[in-house]
Write a structure and sequence with these properties.
By secondary structure, the chain is an alpha+beta fold. The protein has helices at about 5-30, 75-85; strands at about 40-45, 50-60, 70-75, 90.
Length: about 100
């Protein structure tokens, strides 16, 4: 192999390692925390390859006003089962 081919292969390998590390970091590192209160009005398992639970929390500040929607994702099935039991009830989602 000539030096250009080795250089090109090492560049591709470094790129793949970089993309893999970035993807792993974004899927495992939590950049925020907190609590929201409202009604879980929609909760379903979605995705073509990587199935996750996607939910929609309706937050109402005052009766008679429009609700603000908060979209959230749950990856663990045990947490998803807790959220499914609370559909339609005023609660805090277990994120």
């Amino acid at each position: 192999m000539n030096s250009f081919t080795k250089w090109l292969l090492s560049l591709v390998l470094i790129g793949l390692v970089g993309v893999s590390a970035y993807t792993w970091l974004m899927l495992t590192w939590s950049y925020g925390s907190g609590e929201r209160a409202g009604y879980v009005q929609k909760f379903s398992k979605r995705g073509y390859f990587c199935k996750t639970w996607e939910g929609e929390l309706a937050m109402v500040s005052m009766p008679g006003t429009m609700s603000e929607k908060f979209l959230f994702t749950v990856r663990e099935d045990a947490v998803a089962q807790k959220n499914k039991r609370e559909l339609g009830q005023k609660s805090r989602p277990k994120l």
